[in-house]
Amino acid sequence: MFASVLADEGRPAVGTPLAVARVGDTQVWAPLGEADGHGFALADAVWSERGPQLLDGASVDGFVVAGCEPALGMAAAAAPGRGAGRLVVVHASSGRSLTALAAGRAHAAVVHGPADSLPPVPESVARWELARWPVGLAFGGSAPGLADVGAGRVPVAHRDAGAGSEQAFRRALAEAGALDRVAGPVVSGHLASARMTLAGQVAAGVTTAAAAASVGLDFSPWEEHVVQLWVDRRYVEHPGMSTLLQVWCSPRVSAQLRRLGGYTLSGAGQEVNA
User: Fold this and answer.
1) Rounded distance, CA 122 to CA 93, Å?
2) Residue 84: CB atoms within 10 Å
3) Residues near 1 by Cβ (< 8 Å), separated by ≥ 6?
4) CA distances (Å), origin 195, targets 85, 88, 159, 215, 234
5) Phi, psi torsion values for 160, nearest 5 degrees
6) pLDDT tens, per residue, the chain with 274 residues
7) Residue 182 near residue 167, CB atoms below 8 Å
8) DSSP labels for 183-245?
9) Which domains does the chain show, CATH number per domain?
10) Against a cut of 0.90, is the pTM above it?
11) Taking the CB of the first residue and of the last residue of the chain, which one, N or C, has fewer CB atoms within 10 A?
């Protein structure tokens, strides 16, 4: 049986490349974006009129992790490309990722928010810290005022309602006494927000410090978020789980995150028991 990792994912166009992996007894799929602007991504399947069609030589082994941490792709690139240690990353907001985890369509979800107001933690979930980073507004030139943003006079790229960064955005508007009539597109992730801002399609974007810096934008922080890996306890011993933590805490990936800036890694890899 095949199922989409994200329950609200629409049917892709025929021929869309897919990542496929097995979570428990279910084979799950997610559309696979191209790796960069210079080449093609390696797909496990393509969408056909009858659903996912596996390609010759494809592997459905791996560890499925959903979340909006942009560096998950970096970790996947540093992990094995085949076998149980393969990391299959599905980019989605914290809310959508937790829905996938609860439905048994992902082994793990990356969740972020203020340390004292994360979502309730189910007993079926174990947690590890990955990082801490600030959430705020990326912009080029001068920062737009929140009064103008909230009144819809300045378009901003922002996230879906289940995203931790979107919730931070709404709190920032409320604390500034601004209206909540935001104008601008809902984007798929932190990098998409920063890139749209850089391209001049919007005046600013809700994102992280590292995403803003990666494209040369200025950044105004609102609050610090802790970034945690939430794992279904049935899969704590999955080879992909140990691979993810080992790769994330490796000198190679840690050096890349410090190069980007905005990452606090002092608690990275530590299990959260509280």
Assistant:
1) 18
2) 17
3) 25, 26, 27
4) 31, 24, 14, 7, 38
5) -70, 165
6) 689 998 788 889 999 999 999 999 999 999 986 555 556 778 999 999 999 999 999 889 999 999 999 999 999 999 999 999 999 999 999 999 999 999 999 999 999 999 999 999 999 999 999 999 999 999 998 899 999 999 999 999 999 999 999 999 999 999 999 999 999 999 999 999 999 999 999 999 999 999 999 999 999 999 999 999 999 999 999 999 999 999 999 999 999 999 999 999 999 999 999 7
7) no
8) -S-B-SSHHHHHHHHHTTSSSEEEEEHHHHHHTT-EEEEEEEEEEEEEEEGGGTT-HHHHHHH
9) 2-127+226-271 (3.40.190), 134-224 (3.40.190.10)
10) yes
11) C
Pair of tokens at residue 203: 């005046």
Tokens of 200: 């001049």
CB 258 within 8 A of CB 248: no
Torsion angle of the four alpha carbons 12, 97, 93, 171, in this order, in degrees rounded to the nearest 10: 150
Report how many helices (DSSP H) and strands (DSSP E) the chain contains, helices first.
8, 13
What whole-number distance in Å separates Cα of residue 231 and Cα of residue 238? 10
Distance separating alpha carbons of residues 17 and 33, to the nearest angstrom: 8
Report the alpha-carbon distance of residue 62 to residue 70 in Å, rounded: 19
Contact status, residue 53 vs residue 45, Cβ threshold 8 Å? yes
Amino acid at position 226, single letter: V
Burial class (CB in 10 A: 0-12, 13-18, 19+), 103: middle
Site of tokens 């974006």: 33
CA–CA distance, 42 with 60 (Å, rounded to integer): 13
